[in-house]
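Appendix B. Extra example for self-study. Work through it before the problem class; the solution is given directly after the inputs so you can check yourself.
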Amino acid sequence: MPDKETSVAANDIRVSIVEDDDWFRENLTKIIREARGFRLAGAHRNAEAALEKLPGEAADVVLMDIALPGLNGIECVQQLKAKCPEANVLMITVYEETDKIFAALRAGASGYLLKRSSPEELLEAIADMHQGGAPMSSSVARRVVKFFGQEPPPQAEAEAVGLSSREREILDLLVEGRANKEIADRLDVSVHTVRMFIRRIYKKMHVHSRGEAVARFLKK
Amino acid sequence: MNFRFIKTLFLLSLAAANWPGWVNAQAVSEPSAAGNSKNFLVQNWQTDQGLPRNTIRSLAQDNQGYLWMGTPQGLIRFDGVRFVAFESDASTAMARGSVQKVVADDSGALWIATLRSGLFRYLDGSILSIAGTNLPSNVGVDSLAQDRSGVVWLARGNGTVGRLESGSFVTTAQLGNITKGQMLFQLTFDTDGNLWFYRQDTYGRLVEGKRTNWTTHAGSIITLAAGRHGGLWVSTGFDLRRLNSDPESKEEVIVALPSGPYGLNTLFEDRAGTLWLGMSQGGGLYHLLGRKLEKVEGINHSVSAILEDAEGNLWVGTEGAGLFKIRPRVFHLIGKSDGMPTEAVVSVSGDWVAPKRGGLGKVPPTGAVEMAPDFAQNAISSVLEDGSGGVWIGNTAGNIIHQTSDGGRRSVRLWQQGGPQVRVLHRDQKGNLWVGGFPSGLFKFPAGDDSHWQDLSWRGFTNQSITAIAEDQAGLVWVGTSTGNLYRFNGENVKKYGAAEGLSQFPISALLPGTNDSLWVGTLGGGLGRLKQGKVQVLGKHTDLGDDVITQLIQNESGWMWIGSSRGIFRVRTAELQAVLEGRQSKANVIHFGPADGLANVECVAEHQPSVCMTPAGQLRFATSEGVVSFEPAAIPMNDRPPPLNLESVLVDEVPVSVGTEIKLPHDYKKIEFRYTAMSFIAPEKVCFKRYLSGFDAGWVEDGRSRSATYPRLPHGDYEFQFTACNNDGIWNDKPYRFAFRVVPAFWQTTWFRTCALIAFAGSVGGGVLLAARVRMRRKLARLEQANALERERTRIARDLHDNLGARATKISMLAAAASRSVELSETSRQLHDVSQSARQLVRALDETVWTVNPGNDSLANLLDYVTHYAEEFFSDTPVRCQLKIPVDVGDRPMAPELRHSLLAIIKESLNNVLKHSGALNVVVAAQVAGSSLSFTIRDDGCGFSPNAPVAGNGLANLRARAAALGARIEIQSQPGQGTTLRVEVPELDPGFIFPKETI
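Solution. Structure tokens for the complete assembly:
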């Protein structure tokens, strides 16, 4: 384990893809294969196959279609995170549907990307996520605020799951549409620290949603 | 056979769901910190924090580990996280009786004494009245006590004392007649097993049914408690006395009770030998220190019950102020209330401290921090004790000041005006003083010389600031920098370690020399790593420290590494971290000290160093955002008691089933949920769980703090669910709780059925069944179709657009983009690029149309979310910086689709004006909801225009027309060169509109 973590700088970023549309999947596969510094770890056409194979692929970033047949992408993330809590999942979607995107983020995804993004944007998003980036748009931040505001967590989890005052502060600035750099300047911290805090917010949201989200999807 | 089975399960579920006659209220707890006691951590739960009742008369811990509270309304059970009230409705006896005392016995039962309705017993979820000819339920039981053999003794309202034998009451003695208005007898056993009774001004001992040691203190109110010394504590209401175990001994007066209007309610000696006194009339809680009584700050109420749980937490029940938990305070925060100008501290060394906004402080053994008056305005950035009573001081102006023990000072300016700030001070074993600067600069003062220095900045430190300096056992000095590089100084030789050695680009914030030439390296954002044999290994993300902001590292003699981080202070065995790095162990037990330890909101800091130190007395001190955290590492108790486990309920499709027997699930159930708990009260928020469902989970699933697990429908077969938990110190219970169940096959999954089905299939019966089902389905659809026809149509349109057009247009954009790259002819390439761009715009337009059409978005909240999203995307990749002031929580307010659509059109139009015509660099988009009105304001700092001059192309007329159609007011304020403000207000959000249900 430590070897992998320490030598990443020299290695390619391993990417796995879960996408049911053959054309999209092949297109994504091609982009990853041809890009320098990236390597394809696997490509799957449905969640069931992905859940079986992904744990063995040791991907640095998993691209996951939000609308898969059978088990959908959100449920797939949920189950994947239960098996491999460290998996970095980037959701891919045709539309900016905040509800679905937010459900995926709660389930454990760390970001999302529109399918209409250019190959450069795609590669940049993967690389950024791999380096610890955690993008959070204002519209997602609004959901996060509502999420933590409306459903106070059980107190056993408050410490792990409630937001600290610093995290709240950062969230409020994200809601206002401020960029990470601007937030860093305002709070007198580095951009790294801001990114780290955003990741932590995602993580808390994920921890808070565990178990409960499964129930929600099963109810449907 | 299968049908019968389903019925059985259903009945079972009903039985389990209803506690016979009892209300089962659940609430999740959230304690509040009470008071600011220097020596104790006091937490309080009241109804606001989830406690069902605020008056608690008695406390007990049962053999499963639950904490029980007796209240005038019934019982409350607590597992550290969740309160469950066991209260009757008004017709039931226990509630009318008012619970006075709860005692837990070894069999897991609880005995409950009520003031008016006799005795009750709780076992396995049901409460029984223990009434019989010898024990009428209309006579109150005022006190209960259990002797060493487990026999329960009662003192009853009629003045008799006796014991329970096979459910009936055997009178042992008549203590005295109780007349109306008199106090009842109380019972207690001493450590030698003697039964003592007391009431008002008398107390005595019961030996073989005879009253002995009869003692009276006229005019007193007697309270007794067993003493660990073998004797008895006696309070007369005026003073506290001790009686040793010799029956002939005399009372010894220890101390007078606090004066005031309050008396004594209860006495309790804990296992450590501390005597606690619960006062009445709002007198609070005291403890005996030597021969003095000391009040516990934060409790100013009447205390009626005191209990020490199995882990040593002290619990206090009060009249009207709920439940308190008391633990000794180990971590002390030295901050504003101790005389410092600010809470935040930047640097700490020995007794010296530099508060954030300047000044030099000295922490005395007791009392307030002494601030040096002549340093009040100076921005001190680093302090370092010099080892002989003086201190080195570095400031933001680049000065080094040496203050000797006699108060004399020498100041050296390292740079001319505007030079770097001093950020790091370090003294090596030879006595050299190292100085690190920000944004760059490294200097060394030779030992004993505070006026000459050596400038080492030229050694590659020009573009990075010095962030950490440490020295290893071999006397080599290590210097870490803001760009994540590490330098080793061996005399004149300097060796650099960087990305090639595995260091991250994160600033190095803490260096700690380890054994065998290793060096621990903490970074701001890149976690903790170890440099050994020229290579850095970083701890994985799952070690709790992986992606953290590490600020300080220090080790004490007993092998603990103490780690400061932006999340507070952590402790871990250094040997365990080594084992993890060397692959001998998968995980290190990292303990976090947080709110439960009195360290709420504590963020450690490391911009200036030293920011952590060990005092000569062995105390560790960390610089934090909340002050100096100071503590004695050895005083931190280790909880080696694995938490007891309990599976509280199993729900199949949300219906509880009996946990007591093996359950069988039908093949078509949808989900199964397990709710469980573990009783550890020191820091319940640190109790972690892991679970394993055989046949489903590949291995144990670590599930954090979650106390429930839900599994989807499982294939038929036998399963076993297991879970276990660890306590606050990471000690796991190695005997998991196990629960077996079976999922039975459906009739069509049995071999028997499959054979029959084959035969049946040959016939044409199946066709008929299918047809009937189809007809039923059609009718159902027709009914649905009629309802909300319009919403359904909108939904369908949205879904079609969404599913068909969106995905295809996305493909076109990607195809064209790929083609444009592979074509070399510039004109064709450009055209393909345009096709790609157009297709992208098409998807974006579809995105918006889908949003507009979808009835699921017919609400104010959705409009605000969409405006946020739209503005964000609209201005991304443009020079305009967009700030959003849009309220997050506006509740569920319906909004007609026309209004939603038109408002969005107005906003889009005006944002377009800002980008195309105003030349603005900043725009603020604000929304305001006041009563039933809604307004949007869009303000830019662009060129503006004269309101009178006609401006072509900005669509103002269009905007006005749209607004008029909505019945909205629109105002546009602008002057040339002063920006433009547009405000649109809808006075009344359509109140008659009904929320649609269907969404895509």
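Self-check: The CA atoms of residues 13 and 172 of chain A lie 33 Å apart. If your reasoning did not lead you there, revisit section 3.
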